[in-house]
Amino acid sequence: MIDDPSRPIGVFDSGVGGLTVLKALRTRLPDEDFVYLGDTARLPYGTKSPASVVRYAEQATRRLLAEDVKLLVVACNTASAVALEALSRAMAPLPVVGVVEPGALAATSARPEGSHLVLATEATVRLGAYRKAIAALDPAARVRELACELLVALAEEGWTGGEIAESIVRRYLDTDASHPDSVILGCTHFPLLVDAIRACLDPGVSVVDSAVTTAKVVADTLDRQNLCRDNGTGQLRLLATDGAKRFARVGGRFLGAALTAADVELVDI
Length: 269
Ligand code: DGL
Hints:
Elements: E1 9-13, H1 19-28, E2 34-38, H2 50-65, E3 71-74, H3 77-91, E4 96-97, H4 100-110, E5 115-120, H5 122-127, H6 129-137, E6 142-147, H7 149-157, H8 162-173, E7 182-186, H9 194-199, E8 206-209, H10 210-224, E9 236-240, H11 244-255, E10 264-266
Parallel strand pairs: 1-2, 1-3, 2-9, 3-4, 5-6, 5-7, 7-8, 9-10
Helix pairs in contact: 1-10, 2-3, 4-6, 4-10
């Protein structure tokens, strides 16, 4: 039934990165059930063309529709930047929440009329998604976007701190002369590198992670639509399109909980 609050929330990402968003969602909404789908067979999305990202995202989210979800979270910055409109149309009347607008909201609330530096994938930067979202909320804000593709691989490899991580982060930040008030983690993988990123910034710079704000937007949306679940047991199903073992090994770090391959269902989309 369309208005049945006991249905699960669908969370979609290109791979394991969206587990950082899932973690914030489960903390905020402990009674809700979640079905997470990581499209690991086609990861990364960040270097693909917009047409491919839209096609992949539509196929993956259709699989979540089959799980009878009551709301879809696009927990991938690249898919949110490139495909949110297409997904909202395809999933209507299901509510669809992306991560870019909540990230922009968090940054503009933290530093009104500020200067923001967005660290993201190539595809997110190419579309200027954060620039547009921030301009809509705070026309006086200044925005620079920086593609940091190597940080995705670093996070997956688990090389998130120390000399290697910091020197790569510094190498990217050295290409920016904007002296930002805030740095937005515009990719699901970058919260894992937050210590290395902070170590390369002046102490007063705010570091913005959209996961917590996204969870708040989801909670508010459920509330508005009378779809909140109370007294649930917070079940989680993890679906992936390839590599259950790798998903469990790498994803456990993103979720902050140990996973085994048996926790991951392989699906064909
Ligand atoms: N999940 C993607 C994002 O947040 C990063 C990984 C990828 O490129 O697919 O942009």
